[in-house]
Amino acid sequence: MAKSKAKAAKPKTPKLRAEPDREPRDQFAALPWRRNADGAVEVLLITSRETRRWVIPKGWPIKGLTAAKTAAREAYEEAGVSGDVAKKKLGAFHYDKRLASGRLQHVKVTVYALRVEREADAWPEKGQRDRQWTAPADAAAAVDEPELQALIAAFKPA
Question: What's the predicted TM-score (pTM) here?
C-alpha cells in the first residue's frame, strides 16, 4: 500500500482587514490670523455646526487642490476669510470625529497658517457658525483638543 504524501492542511490565519472608519484619515485646516490696530496678533475661531465648540476651519481633502489650498478653501467656506496661505505646515493635531453611524473616526488634521487679507460679508456657511477674533492665548484656552491648544498657543507668524 502506497503512503500518501498529502501534507497536513495548515490552519488558515484570518486576514485582518482595516476598518475604514478606524484608520486615521487626513483633514486640512487653516489657522486664520491677522494683526489688529495695535499690531498684536489675533487668530480666528469658528463654532462647529453640531456641538457649537470653538474650532478652526478644516475639512477633507479636495481633489485637484494641495493640502494648503484645501485649508484656504475651508477657511472661506466656513469662516468667510481669504488671504495668503502658507505652503509649509504649521503643525498637526488629532481628534475623533463621530460619524453618522455613531462610530468614531480617528482624524489627523494638518494645519496651515492663513494671513487674512479679506473678510466676506456673505459666505457659504454664514448663519451655521459663529466666528470670533481673539488673542492666541485666549483661542488656545477655548478649543478642546490639547494638541490644537499647544499649536495655537505657540503660534508666531513668519
Answer: 0.83
